[in-house]
């Protein structure tokens, strides 16, 4: 077996054996197969696709490239939750502690912000003193004692994914459903949970452009999870408009705290409650998430988790020195808010990063004052910009004005949850 043979098979649309995929991946990790040959194979995969057995073989080979977290010391069914990323997506900050308050064991490894989508770790790190770098022993102990821990993934887990993703990023081979699915699920499976709830987003602020491609990706990831022996369910949710009222790290933590007290945006609460119900069902827990939210148990669990990781909420979340409202230039109803433009504005303010080494401003971001469906008059606030300088506010204002599309007629809000995917089927309308 040699690399040219294997690349040629995929170029010609033939199916790989698991041994061929293992040969390619292990050879690339050992630097015996150069970047240009791996890039050729990735492009062949983008064009020709992969069968379900091939994608599962690739996922398994990626998992086997590094360490797998052993969570057997934690009794019961452990449930992880993952989002494919969006603008204002703070569902993990609400649903994970809410599930823990219901009695679910939630061991979660998360990622950082890249481009216009936020990262859970950056949001948590806006809490003074909090660490997301937990050694396995501390991580497991916290899940045992608190019921939840959210930490950074060890670089020793799935190293093949890190190498492959860097290569895909510079060779126009990112938008391939088998490659995306194996990248996400290899990390989720290596994280050791028994069950996984996926939130697969589509629309202007997400990586999947439409509901059909999101359903396809969701089905692929559910198949991979189930094939690896993990109960897996996916919800397909809309990300044309930002989710909730805030975009930015400390701002989203505060919104999550409010949501866990049952206050705030109805769409955000709906998605969070639904995700929590799915987590409870997979764990075999019968508690009512809405009751846990109303009683304040969810917020208490979140604060307990933050404190266990060194967070000092009593010191206050970071606050931006400059806060300026962008106002409507005419009367109307908010028909849509372009999530991509909002995300790019937040990125320009410093709430995210273009490169992995970029520093994040924890206080920067946006608070939406006029949501989809809201009536506005000229001069009414659309959004409040939180920034470290007035110059940055001026820079993003034109983009934000473009993001708000006003209509002369009343507007109804579109649904956020479009479908549910499990091992049996895709159910539209969730």
Secondary structure elements and their pairing?
Layout: H1 3-11, H2 18-29, H3 35-48, H4 52-63, E1 79-83, H5 91-101, E2 106-110, H6 120-124, H7 136-146, E3 148-152, H8 159-169, H9 177-190, E4 195-202, H10 211-227, E5 231-238, E6 246-247, H11 249-259, H12 266-283, H13 289-294, H14 297-308, E7 322-327, E8 332-337, H15 339-349, E9 365-368, E10 375-376, E11 381-387, H16 390-403, E12 404-407, E13 417-421, E14 426-428
Parallel strand pairs: 1-4, 2-3, 4-5
Antiparallel strand pairs: 5-13, 6-9, 7-11, 8-10, 8-12, 9-11, 13-14
Helix pairs in contact: 1-3, 2-4, 4-9, 4-10, 5-12, 5-14, 9-10, 15-16
Tell me about this structure.
- There is one protein chain.
- The chain is α+β, with helices and mostly antiparallel strands and 430 residues long.
- The chain has three domains: 3-49, Transferase, Pyrimidine Nucleoside Phosphorylase, Chain A, domain 3 (Up-down Bundle); 79-314 and 417-428, Pyrimidine Nucleoside Phosphorylase, Chain A, domain 2 (3-Layer(aba) Sandwich), CATH 3.40.1030; 322-407, Pyrimidine nucleoside phosphorylase-like, C-terminal domain (Aldehyde Oxidoreductase, domain 3, Alpha-Beta Complex).
- It is built from 16 helices and 14 strands.
- A five-stranded mixed sheet has the order 1-4-5-13-14, with helices on both faces.
- Strand 13 (417-421) and strand 14 form a beta hairpin.
- Helix 2 (18-29) packs parallel to helix 4.
- The longest helix is centred in the middle third of the chain and has 18 residues, at 266-283.
- The N and C termini lie far apart (46 Å).
């Amino acid at each position: 077996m040699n690399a040219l043979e294997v690349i040629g098979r995929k170029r010609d649309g033939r199916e790989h054996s698991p041994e061929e995929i293992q040969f390619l991946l292990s050879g690339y990790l050992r630097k015996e197969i150069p970047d240009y040959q791996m890039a050729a194979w990735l492009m062949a995969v983008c064009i020709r696709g992969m069968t379900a057995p091939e994608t599962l073989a690739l996922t398994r080979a990626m998992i086997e490239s590094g360490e797998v977290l052993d969570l057997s010391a934690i009794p019961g069914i452990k449930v992880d939750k993952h989002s494919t990323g969006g603008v204002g997506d703070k569902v993990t900050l609400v649903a994970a502690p809410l599930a823990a308050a219901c009695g679910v064991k939630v061991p979660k490894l998360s990622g950082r912000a890249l481009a216009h989508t936020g990262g859970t770790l950056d949001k948590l790190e806006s809490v003074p003193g909090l660490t997301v770098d937990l050694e396995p022993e501390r991580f497991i102990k916290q899940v045992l004692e608190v019921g939840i821990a959210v930490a950074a993934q060890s670089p020793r887990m799935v190293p093949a994914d890190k190498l492959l993703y860097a290569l895909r990023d510079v060779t126009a081979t990112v938008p391939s459903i088998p490659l995306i699915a194996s990248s996400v699920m290899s990390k989720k499976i290596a994280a050791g949970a028994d069950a996984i709830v996926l939130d697969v987003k589509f629309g202007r602020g997400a990586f999947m452009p439409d509901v059909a491609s999101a359903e396809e990706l969701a089905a692929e990831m559910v198949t991979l999870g189930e094939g690896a022996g993990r109960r897996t369910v996916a919800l397909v949710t809309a990300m044309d408009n930002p989710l909730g009222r805030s975009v930015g790290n400390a701002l989203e933590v505060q919104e999550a705290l409010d949501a866990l007290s049952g206050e705030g945006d109805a769409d955000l609460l709906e998605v969070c409650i639904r995700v929590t119900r799915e987590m409870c069902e997979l764990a075999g827990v019968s508690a009512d998430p809405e009751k846990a939210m109303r009683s304040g148990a969810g917020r208490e669990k979140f604060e307990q988790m933050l404190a266990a990781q060194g967070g000092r909420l009593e010191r206050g979340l970071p606050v931006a020195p400059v806060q300026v409202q962008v106002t409507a230039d005419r009367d109307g109803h908010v028909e849509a808010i372009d999530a991509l433009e909002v995300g790019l504005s937040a990125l320009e303010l410093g709430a995210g990063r273009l490169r992995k080494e970029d520093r994040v401003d924890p206080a920067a971001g946006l608070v939406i004052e006029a949501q989809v469906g809201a009536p506005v008059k000229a001069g009414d606030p659309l959004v409040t910009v939180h920034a470290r300088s007035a110059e940055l506010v001026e820079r993003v204002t034109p983009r934000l004005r473009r993001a708000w599309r006003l209509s002369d007629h009343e507007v109804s809000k579109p649904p956020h949850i479009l479908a549910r995917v499990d091992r049996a089927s895709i159910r539209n309308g969730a």
